[in-house]
Amino acid sequence: MIELPGWAVVSPERRAHIERVAALAASWCEAWNLPQPERARVHRAATLHDSLRDAPLAELKALSRLDWQTSELLHGPAAAERARQDGEQDRGVLDAVCYHTVGWAAWDQPGRILYLADYLEPGRAFERTERAALAARVPGDMSGVLRAVAQARIRWVTAQGWPMLKETVDFWNALVAGD
User: Fold this and answer.
1) Are 68 and 120 in contact (CB under 8 A)?
2) Where do runs of H (alpha helix) occur along 33-127?
3) What is the CATH number of domain 12-177?
4) Cβ-contact 80, 44 below 8 angstroms
5) Measured between alpha carbons, how far is 77 from 132 in angstroms, rounded to an integer?
6) Residue 10's pLDDT is what?
7) What is the pTM of this model?
8) d(CA 127, CA 142)
9) 36-48 and 12-32 are packed helices; what angle lies between their axes, rounded to 10 degrees?
10) Distance between CA 60 and CA 97 in Å, rounded?
11) 135 close to 115: Cβ distance less than 8 angstroms
12) Cα(51)–Cα(160) distance, rounded to whole angstroms?
C-alpha cells in the first residue's frame, strides 16, 4: 500500500485508483530499467496526482492558481500547490500532478508517464480491452500511445461540448510537432 500525504482527501475507491496508477507506472519504469531517482519521481507524481480529488471544491479553488472551476480539473493544480507547500520542489513532479488531467507541453518523463497511467489503469470501466492493449504497448511505443491517449481525451472533451483548454491545445500541438 502506498503512503499518501497526511493532507490527502481521498475515498477508499480513490486510494485504490492511485495505487493502480502507481503500480502501472512502476511496471513501465521497470520495463525501461529507469534509474532509481527517476522511478522515485514517477512514484511521487503518481502518489500525489489525485491526493485532493475528493476535497471540497472551495478548498481546491483556494489552493489553485488556475481558474478552471470544476473539481475534475482543479484537483491536480490544488494537489500540486499543497505538495509544494509540503516541501516538494521538483518542478517536473509538480507539473505532472498539476496538469495530469489536461496535458502539458513542457512535461518531462514523470508527467507523460502519469498522464498515460492515469488514463490506462485497469480499474477504469470504459473501453477495457482497448486501454489494456494501449497499456501493453507503452514500453515499446510511448510516443504513439501518448498521441492515442491525448486524442481519445480530446475527442471526449469535444463530444461533451466543452471548450478546449489552452494547455491541452499546446500539449497536442507539441505531440504532433514531435512526429
Assistant:
1) no
2) 36-48, 57-63, 71-85, 91-98, 109-120
3) 1.10.3210.10
4) no
5) 28
6) 97
7) 0.96
8) 19
9) 160
10) 14
11) no
12) 26
For 7, the grid coordinates are 493532507
pLDDT in tens, the chain (179 residues): 899 999 999 999 999 999 999 999 999 999 999 999 999 999 999 999 999 999 999 999 999 988 887 878 899 999 999 999 999 999 999 999 999 999 999 999 999 999 999 999 999 999 999 999 999 999 999 999 999 999 999 999 899 888 889 999 999 999 999 75
Domain-wise residue ranges, the chain: 12-177
pLDDT of residue 160: 85
What backbone phi and psi angles, to 5 degrees, belong to 33?
Answer: 55, 45
Residue with cell string 494537489: 79
**Torsion of Cα atoms, 119 then 120 then 122 then 126, to 10°:** 70
Handedness of CA 118, 73, 61, 89 (dihedral sign): positive
Q: Which three cell numbers stand for residue 162?
A: 466543452
Local structure of 165: helix, strand or coil: coil
Query: How many CB atoms are closer than 10 A to CB 31?
Result: 11
